[in-house]
Amino acid sequence: MKKTVLIALTLVALSSQMSCAGTKTLVEYGTVQRSSIITHSQQGYHPLRTLAAGAVGGVIGHQFGNGNGKTAMTAGGAVAGAAASRHHQTAAQAAQEVQLLIKTQSGQTIQVVQDNNSGLTFNVGDKVRILTSGASTTVDKSV
Prior knowledge:
Elements: H1 2-18, E1 26-40, H2 47-61, H3 68-93, E2 95-104, E3 109-115, E4 127-133, E5 136-141
Antiparallel strand pairs: 1-2, 1-4, 2-3, 4-5
């Protein structure tokens, strides 16, 4: 009985290790030919989201305080919820991406568009590293 359990556990452990494969990342190097910042402005402001967030904030604020304090906490929660929603919507509307045209060492010219949240700035002539894993490609500065 103990041997059977030990063999079964060993087989489970071995089979689970074999199924855990890593991902392959292709690494290339190149030179920036053109770099531009793209700002996406999503159309529309969603006042219902702001109202809903204000209502949720008010409900949460209502859980605290007594008498006038409860009223103040309710109002404060509503204002905080609405402000947080508005801030989130504004940040989403101002999303930026960087568009790079790169000539690789192999002679290919590729274009990569990626989020501009890493704080990296790319200039014409910069040496870069291009990382491709599956359908995802990212670019960073080459060391």
